[in-house]
Amino acid sequence: MAARPEARVPRHLAIVMDGNGRWAKQRLRPRTFGHHAGQKAVREAVEFCLRRGIASLTLFAFSSENWQRPPTEVSALMELFLKALDKEVKELHGNGVRIRFVGDLDAFAPELRKRMLAAMEHTEGNTALNMNVAVNYGGRWDIAQAARRAAEAIARGEFSADELDEHRLHGFTCLADQPPLDLFIRTGGERRVSNFLLWQLAYAELYFTDTLWPDVDQDSLAEAIDDYARRERRYGRTGEQVATG
């Protein structure tokens, strides 16, 4: 086996967890079976990030567009969220994981929203890993709500419209208090970002794999990190400028 490149890990890793439905279909099972199987891969990702010292993990669990799926699947996903909250939060808290749900939570049923808020409050002081779960989230929504909040701040007289620049607007986006996104992973073979973290993706490295989400394990994630470690991130500079610091 070839030697792996020198360790260089991202500070912030985001994953589109795609392929649950196709994984279930291959096994002649309903799509909900794949969503249940995907929970194991979530645990693998959390454990991987804790072992590698990654500061933030953002998972795309339910997009604002996913409400268009069959009602039975949406209902099953909501039930899965409830059960996962009851089952996983205690262990995540014990491992020092801070849970944050990112997105428009008002669309969810009161009981589910209550449990989401309780999980965030319970783990708020943890520092080993920021685990951001994007639910009813869309990148365009994120930018729009940031613009709205900035406009409200201008109306309150906190700063002028002329003072609104990229840096200030960034402060109103989701995850503004966390490290910049370094690596975006999408499983399941699709090669698109699907309205996920559009603002945060500006300088992130993109990695696509055909592996379906329930099949993702430590080795799968290590391959993505190894690929990331071999890349030269230039941020608009030349390769020579990067090499000379």
UniProtKB/TrEMBL annotation:
Q: Which residues bind substrate?
A: 19-23, 31, 35, 63-65, 67, 69, 186, 192-194
The record's catalysed reaction(s) read: 8 isopentenyl diphosphate + (2E,6E)-farnesyl diphosphate = di-trans,octa-cis-undecaprenyl diphosphate + 8 diphosphate
Keywords, ordered alphabetically: Cell shape, Cell wall biogenesis/degradation, Magnesium, Metal-binding, Peptidoglycan synthesis, Transferase
Give the required cofactors: Mg(2+)
Cofactor comment: Binds 2 magnesium ions per subunit.
Superkingdom of the source species: Bacteria
Q: Which residues form the active site?
A: D18, N66 (proton acceptor)
Q: Name one GO cellular component term.
A: cytosol
Q: Does the keyword Transferase apply?
A: yes
Q: Which Gene Ontology MF annotations are present?
A: ditrans,polycis-undecaprenyl-diphosphate synthase [(2E,6E)-farnesyl-diphosphate specific] activity; magnesium ion binding
EC number annotated for this UniProt entry:
2.5.1.31
One matching Pfam family: Prenyltransf
Give the binding site residues for Mg(2+).
D18, E205
Gene Ontology biological-process entries: cell wall organization; peptidoglycan biosynthetic process; polyprenol biosynthetic process; regulation of cell shape
User: Does the UniProt entry include the keyword Transferase?
Assistant: yes
What function is annotated for this protein? Catalyzes the sequential condensation of isopentenyl diphosphate (IPP) with (2E,6E)-farnesyl diphosphate (E,E-FPP) to yield (2Z,6Z,10Z,14Z,18Z,22Z,26Z,30Z,34E,38E)-undecaprenyl diphosphate (di-trans,octa-cis-UPP). UPP is the precursor of glycosyl carrier lipid in the biosynthesis of bacterial cell wall polysaccharide components such as peptidoglycan and lipopolysaccharide.
Q: Which family does it belong to?
A: Belongs to the UPP synthase family.
- Quaternary structure? Homodimer.
**Name the record gives this protein:** Ditrans,polycis-undecaprenyl-diphosphate synthase ((2E,6E)-farnesyl-diphosphate specific)
> Where does this protein come from, organism-wise?
Luteibacter anthropi
Q: What does the record give as the organism's lineage? A: Bacteria, Pseudomonadati, Pseudomonadota, Gammaproteobacteria, Lysobacterales
Q: Which gene encodes it?
A: uppS
